[in-house]
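Need DNA primase's 3D structure for a figure. Predict it.
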Amino acid sequence: MCDGLLVGNAEIIPFSPRRYLYHAYLAYMRAHGFGKPVTLTRFGKDMPGAMAEYGREYMKRKTKHGLRSNVTLTEDSEDWMPSCAIGHK
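Structure prediction for DNA primase:
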């Protein structure tokens, strides 16, 4: 069942890693200091294998809002997810 994050792409503004899977991937890469994220095309090709390593199946389906995946964020993502309160010190 595909009721997770939309896949998205790097050009969607505003950057929304809690809504778009590719944005979440980019946020993860930045938070961990990895400077060369893969392209969206490569990301899409690599996801089935990456998910299989964790015993999961990667699924997606086309909707009127774009491609929706079966991937959801866990509480652990809060460790690397950017804060919603941008501009607050």
